[in-house]
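To: structure desk
From: M.T.
Subject: fold request, one chain
Message: Could you run this one when you get a chance? Sequence is below, nothing fancy, just the single chain.
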Amino acid sequence: MNYFNEKAEKMPRSGILAAQDEGLRRVVRRVYGANAYFRKRFDEAGVNPDEFRGLADIERLPFMSKADFREQYPLGMCCVGREEITEMHMSSGSTGTPVVMPYTPGDIAQWAECMARCYVMAGARRGDVCQVTPGFGLFNGGFGCYHGARAAGMFVLPCGAGNTLRQIKLAGDFGTRVLTGVVSYAVRIMEVLEETGQKLPDLKIGIFGAETFSESMRERIESGLGLEAFDVYGMTETGGVGTLGMDCPEHSGIHVWEDQYIVEIVDHDTGHVLPDGEFGEVAVTALNREALPVIRFKTGDLSRVVSRERCGCGRTHIRLDKIRGRIDDMLIISGVNFFPAQVEQSLLKIPGVLPNYRMTIQDHDGIKRLRIDVEAEDGVTGYMVEKQLKEDLGFSPHGDIHKPGSLPRQEGKAKRVFYETV
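Reply: Done. Structure tokens follow.
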């Protein structure tokens, strides 16, 4: 059976709600008593932990955001003493002060449990060779994949980022069955395999995170690498990759581990909780994190509740739609709002178009225009690209076609959107 913790993963809805209610009361009391930041925020919102009624009162709790992490940098929101912290990870800080997440030994164990559930849900077995391609360092990706693989009893190849030829050699030599990484790096591995005429017959499972990716991209990766691709979900603020969950082999939504986290879909502007089925911003509350449990953290991710019913895989945990994009990634061109993932989905509908592309937002004296540079095989024209994008997005960006392999590559997370003043 593909369960790491069958009792937790198949918990009845009544049990999930009871665990969330108890966990929410507990975490509110704990952070109020442990940290001045939380105490001040709760006092301002009129929340008395002794009178707090759990799930019935969750909407009374104030939201958190990245701004709180940055204002309290480095450890202003930490709820344990420094002597209890065993390690930390943080975001890149590319858009300002980085987000820091401290960990107790209990937090590491919780992270490993969540990620191990993801591995086993995807079909990983004890003893499988698991190749970890995200970097090991301040970014949490490599360590999260490592902790989870160890907990699941796998044989770990802790490769880290880059050196694709060596990655391929190691995968072939050791018989890698499970590959972890960012989506764009999976594309890079596909390209090098094709260039060198190699294959990886043992590879069966791909677990990819950190970047949104369309169904079209999933299909390309599965075809190019000969594996089943899974969309893993987690972020620095929730404790790292895999903490929130992943899609199962049914591929009918991302299972969120509800015994560990409460997820809400809220209106970004008003904060009101939206009905199931409506797209909004994902807000997350951590129930079992010790050092820094987020409470109603507004992630900036856009999704919706797909189902709260038992899935075909047997799991009872809520399913979210795949992340459609981030609120701060939304682009507006010619009066049309869209996300980069929609461009990818449109491009990959065109036969002969390859997965490497760039979007450049050009500012012509305050008027924004979009140029798409995409690699494609012979026979694909700029007109074909413009026509497809017009059909899907409602406006016609300029499309430039490039020979395969000619656009720049990144070994890690891909940068798709660029800006220039014309």
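Reply (cont.): The mean pLDDT is 92. Let me know if you need anything else for the meeting.
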